[in-house]
Amino acid sequence: MQYSRIEINNPTMGGVPCVKSAGIPVSMVTGQMAQGASSAEVLSTYPQLSIEDLFACFAYEARTH
User: Fold this and answer.
1) In this structure, are residues 19 and 50 in contact, taking their beta carbons and an 8 Å threshold?
2) What is the pLDDT of residues 22-45, one digit of tens each?
3) Pick the CATH number of 6-64 from 1.10.8.60, 3.20.20.140, 1.10.10.10, 3.40.50.720
4) Is 60 exposed, middle or buried (0-12, 13-18, 19+ CB in 10 A)?
5) Which of 3, 7, 19, 44 gives the lowest tally of CB atoms within 10 Å of its CB?
6) What is the pTM of this model?
């Protein structure tokens, strides 16, 4: 499966999967949710993200872990 909103860019983030439009690591997004943050709280913390970006992070984590 291809993740159009997620990218792995070795020179920029050392190979850490990030939200393409924002450069925010997927693990930061999913980590906040795992610690109990709501999607609204995550979107407030990272206003450059969309709800679709959150879904892409969850899908990426689900498929790769």
Assistant:
1) no
2) 999 999 999 999 999 999 999 999
3) 1.10.10.10
4) buried
5) 44
6) 0.88
